[in-house]
Amino acid sequence: MAGVAFPTAFLAAGFLAATLLPADLLPAAFLAAAGFAAGLAFATGFGAGFFWALDFSAAFTLLATMTALASQSLSKNRPVL
User: Fold this and answer.
1) Tens digit of pLDDT for each residue in 19-70?
2) pTM of the predicted model, to two decimals?
3) Number of domains making up the chain
4) In terms of residue numbers, what domain contains 39?
5) What pLDDT is attached to residue 19?
6) Residues in contact with 75: Cβ distance below 8 Å, sequence separation at least 6, in sequence order
7) Residue 80: inside a domain, yes or no?
8) What is the Cα–Cα distance from 49 to 57, expressed in whole angstroms?
């Protein structure tokens, strides 16, 4: 059940944040929420413990956020940092 409830909650939070953030941050916010949800779904799907779920979620979130920021900077021809 947690494998479905947690990702759904974080995706809902991502959509809520996306409605409140400026347009430039929408892809990063959505991908961060989706990455966190994917990490939780992946970790809980294998029956991993709570801390494993947090580790996987943090990794997926970091990857998704950095990808979104890099794609935004490439589309606007400016550096990420």
Assistant:
1) 566 666 666 666 666 667 776 666 666 665 666 666 666 777 777 767 766 6
2) 0.40
3) 1
4) 2-75
5) 59
6) none
7) no
8) 12
